[in-house]
Amino acid sequence: MHIFISYSHLDRVIVNRIIARLQSDGHEIWADTIKLRPGDNLEQKIRGGLEEADVLIVVISENSFRSRWVQYEYSAIALREISQAERRIIPIRIDQSAVPSYLANRLYLDLSHDFDAGLERLSAELRTATPESLSETPPPISNAADARGFQIGKLREALRRGRLTLVCGAGVSIEAGVPAWNDLLVRLLDAMMQRISKDRSIKVGEVVAAEFQKRHGASSLILGKYLKNNLGRDFQGEVRNALYAAEPTKSPLIDSIVELSRPQRDAKPLDSIITFNFDSLIEERLTVQSIPNKSIFSEAIMHDSNVLPIYHVHGYLPRSGKIPVDTELVFSEDAYHSQFIDPFSWSNLIQLNKLTQNTCLFVGISLTDPNMRRLLDVAWRKNPDKTMSHYLVKRLPQLPDETVPDELSKLLEEQDANALGLNLIWIEDYSELPDVLGKIASGNF
After folding, report:
1. CA-CA distance, 242 to 178, in Å (whole number)?
2. How far apart are CA 127 and CA 25, in angstroms?
3. I need a surface site. Which of 77, 253, 284, 370 has the fewest CB within 10 A?
4. Strand, coil or helix: what is 340?
């Protein structure tokens, strides 16, 4: 049987043991140390090796994630599998690295705990397999559900050591009843129209405001700038009114965040929460549950070591009381640009500090914010070990009756996240998020 092996040269000693065993079983092995010669066209040789292979073995390790060339091979292998609807990939994990889901699919082989036993099992599976049987069903080696438990275990360990930061996006507040971004803009447009047309010469209302936004075609940041300019001093108050108009209070997701924040006897508390939301819903629920917390929205605000800091890096609008005079909402184009171009802004420094010192878990975030992506990239470049220590919970791509586009979307999204130092925790539906956080808090997975 022809077997292609993708691996990092830093793992050569271990990989040579795998190669020697498979060669002794009579298999023809394609590995760069065996097949490549000085002057060879690398890409052409690799494509040829992939074409001839009956089985594709991908060796997963921390070293392989540091190698851009190995990542190229991963991509070529995964894209080939998707395009040809074949199931011939056998990922092999040799250390405690997470197996990318676009490679694991449902099955992988773990050699990290007992190398010899795992190698024996691989040998036995390949000895009895045929190219036809491998293309139909992968060898029953390990269930990829283990990967979820592995990821949760890593997050649980970070929590136990007091090095876990929760990063919350818009999805966290939306579930509790805070309007989504576009809905918020429409409500503010309605308020702006009311303001500039007191004589009712302009027909107002959210329906008309929504149509205005659609016709205008401006980006949300540009539209935010128009709103800020025309609402003037009333801007922050109008934003607060729109945020809390539906009287949002709690949700299963926010309750699970509270449980994750609760100090435990066998572990240190959650290190911090970073939120891109303006609202105070998390603080309100923490206070109800008697968990000390502090809202931080400027560099002048300090906190005691026994309270949970909640960093509002885009500004803060509490439900009641006076709006803090030193809060600035990152709502409009000018405010966003100010934050983006200032590497020493307190919000950028806080995010970089947590990204470089802690394990961060991102929830309710789409990963489209350019500033966030820049900070992730900086933290990844500053990471000497190039270990993917952060996690993003994301819903699986869902295109009706389109299996291949779903798999391709999953591959591309996971590669994008990995390039920024993020592991992806895939869920079928956002309703699963509280369960994921609950397992991290409880340690039961």
Report:
1. 8
2. 7
3. 370
4. helix
- Collapsing DSSP states into helix, strand and coil, what is residue 107? strand
Say how far apart CA 188 and CA 240 lie, in whole Å: 10
Taking residue 369's Cβ as centre, other Cβ atoms within 10 Å add up to 17
Instruction: Give the Å distances, CA to CA, from 329 to 242, 289, 360, 378.
Output: 14, 28, 23, 24
Residue 244, helix vs strand vs coil: coil
Angstrom distances, CA of residue 198 to CA of 57, 190, 192, 201:
70, 12, 10, 8
What's the pLDDT tens digit per position in 369-391? Answer: 889 999 999 998 887 776 778 99
Determine the residue type at 347: S
Q: How far apart are CA 332 and CA 315, in angstroms?
A: 12
Prediction pTM value:
0.81
* pLDDT, tens digit (0-9, with 9 covering 90-100), for 309-349: 999 999 999 999 999 887 888 887 677 778 878 878 899 99
Angle of helix 370-382 relative to helix 333-341, nearest 10 degrees, comes to 10
Place of tokens 């939120």: 275
Q: Is the dihedral of CA 368, 372, 373, 374 positive or negative?
A: positive
Q: How far apart are CA 329 and CA 351, in angstroms?
A: 17
**DSSP class per residue in 258-319:** HHHHS-BTTBPPP-EEEE-----HHHHHHHHTT--EEEE-STT----TTSEEEEETT----S
